[in-house]
Structure formats: structure tokens, C-alpha cells
Amino acid sequence: MADLSFLDREIAGLKEQGLFNTIRTIGTAQDAWIEVDGKKVLNMCANNYLGFANHPELKKAAQEAIEMYGVGPAAVRSIAGTMSLHNELEEKLAKFKNVEAAISFQSGFSANTATIPTLMTAEDVIFSDELNHASIIDACRLTKAKTVRFKHCDADSLEERLKEFAVARRKLVVTDGVFSMDGDIAPLPELVEVASRYDAMVMVDDAHGEGVMGNGGRGIVDHFGLHGQVDIEIGTLSKAFGAVGGYVSGKQKIVDFLRQRARPFLFSSAATPADVAACIKAVDILTESGSLVEKLWDNSRYFQDKLKALGFDLGVTVTPITPVMIGDSNKAQAFSHSLFENGIFGMAISFPTVPKGKDRIRVMNSATHSKEDLDFAAGVFEQVGKEVGIIA
Fold it and tell me: Does 39 share its domain with 67?
């Protein structure tokens, strides 16, 4: 037997630093109010932006898909064929995103690890925002390409790095659309302009922009009116869309090549029929109306204004993501614990998810919250903020 005592030391060290994450257990469907560890609490930390995770129309679509298609695809699509449901989802996603084509994957993480290693080789260079999501970082590591980081949301820094590697055979600029921990957005028009001058492809991971930014939640490319100028858009189906999965959308030739060579597509079964059907219904609802997106933004502005008036530091957010900055891991844990005791589910976020000293409670607003919910939440945040010493 191997000596695993090193793990005891590692875990003890995490606990001493306030970095040991105790994962709570949810006993109900994701909604505005949920049961967590047997306690009814206001849900302020799920990515269920639009309430689709428990939407009656999505649940009905999932149930009907199970009756027609069963519970799983049973094999990889490239060997045993693809279900018509998956084709329907991809066609509707492409139309929704106003692009030539789309391909779906098992998760947003898989979409990134499918795309970057498939397109980039040892002769190529990837230019990555320094605060990009872990799935982008890991996808870059899976390639033999050189990865060069540029300063966060800084087009001038990107240009400096592109100049250094102007002779690279193939260049890819990759950035998050909405940065999940800070709620700021990439300066996509400036990045696209710089990339075009150096003949570099542009890829944006819009996990927190789908269902949130743009017309009816069509994402950050739509928000900036950059259709046709961004080569690759990565999306997730597990946040605003309420189910699970990920996708790549963009030019037809890119999607065609991913179907032939992307390893997560070739060597792993697709998402289940129930998940795919639920996602199709989510796309249908957003195609018909942007009312849920408008409600999300209205709730976000309302709640953020209340927290700012109380003296909380919300960082640089310009989206519904609301980071309540704490700056100390133990204080963040204490803040989260006290929130829970007072009826709010809001988890502490610390290293390695965010840099050391940037600890926070990341509040996720939702279209399912009522104004009464948000008033209650603001009152509890005020009480706990004073207890922990975050506000006067």
C-alpha cells in the first residue's frame, strides 16, 4: 500500500488557511429558494440565471424525450450514429447565434478541450487572457503549441505579444466573454481589431454570456455586433440554459473539422436525450422572447444598487455576477457560514479559484428572484457584513 499520509498534511494545511471547501448538499430542484443540508435558504450562488433548471416546459421536454429516445445515446456519435435530437439542437443553436454551424459536447469544459488542441499544433502560438477560465488553460496545456498570456482585458498587451510572435504559422487569440469571478467583460471589439491585423483567429468562451448578454441572451458577440468577425464561440448549456452540455459555434469549416478530429467528440458519448431536449426548449423560449433576460438584468441592477449603498465593494462587475469582495479566506468562510445561518446560500470563493487576497462571496442573481427575495438578501448581507467587519 502506498503511503498517503501526505494527503493528511495537505488537507490539514487547507483547513488552517481557510481554503478547505465543504460542499453542501442540495435536496430540492434549483430555484429561488432551495433546501440545503436540510435547511430552506435563498439561493444566491447557482448559475441558473433564467430559472431554466426547474422550468416546467424544459422538464416536460426532457420527460417526453426519455419516452421517445430512452435515457442515453449508448455510443459515440461518430461510430454508432447521431440522434436526431442532437442535430436539432445544433441547428437551432447555430440559428440562435447567427453563425454557420454548431457542434455540441458533453460540457463547456469539453468544448474547450475539444477545440484548442484540435486546431493548434507545435508550430503555433496561443494568446490567452491571463484570467481565462481553467478549461481554457487546460485546453492550452493539451496542445504542443506555445501559450502566451496577455494582460487581462488589455488589447495593447495583446498587440505587444502578437508582435513578438508575428511569424508563427498559426495564431489563436482566446478569451472569456464574461469573466466568471469578477463579472467584467472582454473588450472584444478591440481584441478582434488587433487580431485581424496579425491574421490571428479569435475564440471567445461565452459561458457566462449565453442567456445573459446580447439580444435575448445571444451572447457577447451579439452584444458588440461582431457577427462574422469572431471565428469560434464556445458556449455552455449548464448555466443560463439550465441543463448540461457545451457547444462550439462559428464557421462551418471549423465545425466540420471538429467532427473529424476533436477527441471529446470521437471518444465520448454525447449528452443524454433528456438534457438535449431540455436545451432545445430553452433555445426555443429565448428565440421567442427576451423577457427572462430582461428580468435577470432588472434584478441584478436592483440588488447591486442596494449592496453598493450599504458600502460593499463589488469589484469591477458590469454583469449579473456580483462579487462581494472580502479579501481574506477566513473572513470569507465566516461570512458564508453566517449567511447560511441567516437563510442565504452564498459560498465563499478563495484560492485557487481566485488569486490569494481576492477572496469573496460571489452572488449569482437570477430571474427567479422576487424583489422581496432581494430585499431580504440585502438585509442579511448588511447584518453579516457588520458582524464580520466588512462594512461599517
Answer: no
Cis peptide before 352 (omega within 30 of 0): yes
Does residue 295 share a domain with residue 278?
no
> What Cα–Cα distance (Å) separates residue 307 from each residue in 32, 34, 380?
19, 23, 11
Q: How far apart are CA 103 and CA 266, in angstroms?
A: 12
Asked if residue 6 belongs to a domain, the reply is no
Quick check: is 10 in a domain? no
CATH of the domain at 370: 3.90.1150.10
Say whether pTM exceeds 0.85.
yes
β-pair type (232-236, 201-205)? parallel
Inter-residue contact 231 to 252 (CB < 8 Å):
no
Q: Which of 116, 89, 127, 66 is nearest to 262 (CA)?
A: 116
110 and 189 housed in the same domain: yes
Strand, coil or helix: what is 221?
A: helix
Which of 271, 288, 305 delimits the end of a domain? Answer: 288
As to burial, measured by CB atoms within 10 angstroms (0-12 exposed, 13-18 middle, 19+ buried), residue 62 is buried
**pLDDT for 240-286, tens place per residue?**
999 999 999 999 999 999 999 999 999 999 999 999 999 999 999 99
Letter for the amino acid at 179? F
Which range of residues forms the domain containing residue 301?
Answer: 20-49+290-388
Over residues 246-257, the pLDDT tens digits come to 999 999 999 999
Q: What are phi and psi of 375, to 5 degrees?
A: -65, -45
Catalytic positions:
180, 208, 239
Domain boundary among the residues 288, 310, 337 is at: 288
